[in-house]
Amino acid sequence: MPELSRTSNAFGGFRVNVKRFYVPFTLKENCPNCGERYTHCFDEAYLSYPMIGEPETVNCYCYKCDHEWERQIILTLDMRLHDAK
Ligand SMILES: [Zn+2]
């Protein structure tokens, strides 16, 4: 039976060695200052050399009221055997 498991150094954070890392996720929320709807598309606004398993800061900006704020995201990684029965 094949076995796939994480190596010990993968439990801490490790860097994705990609300058422009586009991922298919979208953050939607209302601007904390004026309430305007805000959308942050990670498939357009890439992450640069992100760390898997550690918080990443995302800078948000509202064009309506010129307000800036931060959100934290965390990337996780999963790997599975596709053909195992
Ligand atoms: Zn605003």
What would you note in describing this structure?
This protein has 85 residues and is an all-beta fold. It has a domain at 17-74. 0% of the residues lie in helices and 35% in strands. It is built from no helices and 6 strands. It has strands at 14-15, 26-30, 37-41, 51-52, 55-62, 67-74. The strands form 3 sheets. Strands 1-4 form a two-stranded antiparallel sheet. Strands 2-3 form a two-stranded antiparallel sheet. The protein has a two-stranded antiparallel sheet with strand order 5-6. A hairpin with a 6-residue loop joins β2 and β3 (37-41). The mean pLDDT is 91. Bound molecules: zinc ion (ZN). Zinc ion (ZN) is lined by residues 31, 33-34, 36, 62, 64-65, 67.
Short description:
The chain has 85 residues and is mainly β. 0% of the residues lie in helices and 35% in strands. It has a domain at 17-74.
How is the main sheet built? 2 strands, antiparallel
Shape: elongated
The small molecules bound here are:
zinc ion
The SSE string, one letter per element, is: EEEEEE
The N- to C-terminal Cα distance equals: 9 Å
**Count of helical regions:** 0
Task: Calculate the mean pLDDT score and round it.
Answer: 91
Q: Rounded to an integer, what's the Rg over CA atoms?
A: 17 Å
Low-confidence stretches at least 5 residues in length (pLDDT < 50)? none
Number of strands: 6
* Proportion of beta-strand residues: 35-45%
Helix content: under 10%
Strand order of the largest sheet: 1-4
Task: Classify the secondary structure makeup into a structural class.
Answer: mainly beta
